[in-house]
Specification:
By secondary structure, the protein is of the alpha+beta class. The chain contains six helices and five strands; from the N terminus they run αααββββαβαα. The protein is about 45% helix and about 15% strand. A hairpin with a 5-residue loop joins β1 and β2 (about 50).
């Protein structure tokens, strides 16, 4: 049984359920695999799971006032995600993600997200991962293409007459010249 699990790899919890369906196994073992799965995977949506090996995190001291723990505790999290090397995302999604990330994305295709809102490292780590998830979800949305249309002659004429009326109103506001 364990050899089969080792060959399959932990890809999804549903696959684990299929593997353990016909076996009488303790709930603790299944819960252990669920905890391992959630620790090693970041679920973006039903189809996409990011492997935590694709993400690197570094910690440093946060800026601002600190009190007792100032210059002692490294709570700021800098999360790095290499978009170009990710296997979980398709090519169009990678391109949209780099475009959406803007200045957070380096020329090498690495998205850098920082989080220093909280005083606990774990909370900042969760915040950084939520920010990454939010960015990827935005990149997954396909943009609606706008059909370019030209204004009709009637609309152009209406716009021109409105401009003429408006300019006359503005002329009336100017100073009256007496000569």
């Amino acid at each position: 049984m364990m050899e089969h699990l080792g060959q399959a790899g932990i890809v999804s919890f549903i696959q684990l359920q299929k593997i353990f369906r016909n076996c009488l196994i303790h709930v603790e073992v299944l819960n252990f695999f669920l905890i391992c799965y959630t620790f090693f995977m970041i679920q973006i949506n039903d189809q996409i799971n990011l492997d935590t090996t694709e993400i690197s995190e570094s910690f440093s001291r946060s800026s601002g006032a600190g009190g007792q723990h100032v210059n002692k505790v490294e709570t700021k999290v800098e999360l790095r995600f290499n978009v170009k090397k990710s296997n979980a995302l398709s090519k169009p999604v990678k391109l949209r993600l780099q475009k959406i990330a803007g200045r957070k994305c380096s020329q090498d295709g690495v998205v850098i997200i920082t989080a220093e809102k909280y005083r606990l490292q774990s909370m900042n780590r969760d915040l950084a991962r939520r920010k990454l998830k939010k960015l990827i979800l935005r990149a997954l949305e396909k943009p609606v293409l706008r059909l370019e249309t030209k204004p009709s002659k009637a609309i152009k004429n209406r716009r021109a007459t409105e401009k003429i009326k408006r300019s006359k109103v503005k002329l009336l506001r100017s100073r009256v010249r007496t000569e």
